[in-house]
UniProtKB/TrEMBL annotation:
<keyword id="KW-0378">Hydrolase</keyword>
<keyword id="KW-0479">Metal-binding</keyword>
<feature type="binding site">
    <location>
        <position position="142"/>
    </location>
    <ligand>
        <name>Zn(2+)</name>
    </ligand>
</feature>
<dbReference type="InterPro" id="IPR024078">
    <property type="entry name" value="LmbE-like_dom_sf"/>
</dbReference>
<protein>
    <recommendedName>
        <fullName>1D-myo-inositol 2-acetamido-2-deoxy-alpha-D-glucopyranoside deacetylase</fullName>
        <ecNumber>3.5.1.103</ecNumber>
    </recommendedName>
</protein>
<feature type="binding site">
    <location>
        <position position="10"/>
    </location>
    <ligand>
        <name>Zn(2+)</name>
    </ligand>
</feature>
<dbReference type="InterPro" id="IPR003737">
    <property type="entry name" value="GlcNAc_PI_deacetylase-related"/>
</dbReference>
<keyword id="KW-0862">Zinc</keyword>
<comment type="function">
    <text>Catalyzes the deacetylation of 1D-myo-inositol 2-acetamido-2-deoxy-alpha-D-glucopyranoside (GlcNAc-Ins) in the mycothiol biosynthesis pathway.</text>
</comment>
<comment type="similarity">
    <text>Belongs to the MshB deacetylase family.</text>
</comment>
<dbReference type="InterPro" id="IPR017810">
    <property type="entry name" value="Mycothiol_biosynthesis_MshB"/>
</dbReference>
<dbReference type="Pfam" id="PF02585">
    <property type="entry name" value="PIG-L"/>
</dbReference>
<dbReference type="GO" id="GO:0035595">
    <property type="term" value="F:N-acetylglucosaminylinositol deacetylase activity"/>
</dbReference>
<feature type="compositionally biased region" description="Low complexity">
    <location>
        <begin position="294"/>
        <end position="303"/>
    </location>
</feature>
<feature type="binding site">
    <location>
        <position position="7"/>
    </location>
    <ligand>
        <name>Zn(2+)</name>
    </ligand>
</feature>
<feature type="region of interest" description="Disordered">
    <location>
        <begin position="294"/>
        <end position="317"/>
    </location>
</feature>
Length: 317
């Protein structure tokens, strides 16, 4: 399995349970991150001096955070696209940072895809996971990650080793609607000001969802991975607040649409797959994911100590 993400922490928030689920089962999981996340908004004052407007060291620092997250998820194979620092975080859409000469948003598509093809040539993924054409919510680096991943898959397929199935991360509208209802009266409402799921920049009709991966046994690993990204996700994040109220199901269940390949056997009213490898013939050395697979205790995560003497002002994306 190959996952293509834009920034450090995207892997934990969007696909952490899935990665932990397959890694615990002994499957090959390769993570490719396209940037170092240099323009990330810093929520912890102790880390503010790392910001792009200060020392511009956030990207390098986040390499260590990502290593901690991968350890928590049990993922041993992680690469940066083209090497660490080849492409820079572009910042949110419309900002001047989109025009930085190394911004991922400005990357030559075939050149960037070529770096990914080299990884695919080595690991030969049967399944690839990335974002939809809107990058799930419109961030330029997420959109570019989608473009690069899909172009690389096209090139690899032409050479005979493209992935058999390609999934895009998704969130069913029924889940969003349930969240709107559950948190309508909450003081920590992540959907504040939104009444309808259609008002959000993401959300997929349930009938278009192809797979639901139940990694609830691995929710602790996902939470540990998120906590490893301390510059981006503070201890008082609404993500942890919701997790404490809804537990493993909130942290552990992740959804996907199928962009390339044949849908395998599924269940429920829409025939959702419960395995991203459903319908594929696995290599002889691979073992099927057991229904009762468990991640056990998450790997120990070492989060770097905040730098000494940093300014108090928080950075801004």
């Amino acid at each position: 399995m190959l996952l293509v993400h834009a920034h450090p922490d995207d892997e934990a928030i969007g696909t952490g349970a899935t990665m932990a689920y397959y890694a615990a089962a002994g499957g090959g999981v390769t993570l490719v991150t396209c940037t170092l996340g240099e323009e990330g908004e810093i929520h912890v004052p102790a880390f503010a001096g790392l910001a792009a407007a200060e020392s511009d060291q956030l990207g390098g620092y986040r390499i260590a955070e990502l290593a901690g997250a991968c350890a928590a998820l049990g993922v041993r194979d992680h690469r940066f696209l083209g090497g660490a620092g080849r492409y820079r975080d572009s910042g949110m859409m419309g900002l001047a940072t989109n025009d930085h000469p190394r911004a991922f948003w400005q990357a030559d598509l075939d050149e960037a895809a070529g770096y990914l093809v080299e990884i695919m040539r080595e690991v030969r993924p049967q399944v690839m996971v990335t974002y939809d054409p809107n990058g799930f919510y419109g961030h330029p680096d997420h959109i570019q990650a989608h473009r690069v991943a899909m172009r690389a898959a096209e090139l690899a397929t032409a050479e005979g080793f493209g992935p058999a199935k390609i999934y895009w991360t998704a969130m069913p509208k029924s889940v969003l609607e349930a969240g709107l209802l559950a948190f309508a009266d909450s003081s920590d409402n992540p959907f504040a000001g939104t009444d309808q799921a259609d008002e959000l920049p993401f959300g997929t009709p349930d009938a278009q969802i192809a797979a639901r991966i139940d990694g609830t046994d691995h929710h602790a690993a996902k939470e540990a991975a998120m906590r490893a990204h301390a510059t981006q996700i503070p201890d008082n994040s609404w993500l942890y607040s919701i997790a404490s109220n809804f537990g493993g199901e909130f942290m552990g269940v992740e959804y996907y649409t199928l962009a390339v390949g044949a849908k395998g056997p599924g269940s429920g009213p829409y025939g959702w797959e419960d395995d991203l490898f459903a319908g594929l013939s696995l290599p002889a050395q691979a073992t099927a994911v057991a229904a009762d697979s468990s991640a056990g205790e998450p790997a120990a995560v070492v989060v770097p100590t905040p730098p000494v003497g940093t300014p108090a002002e928080a950075g801004a994306r």
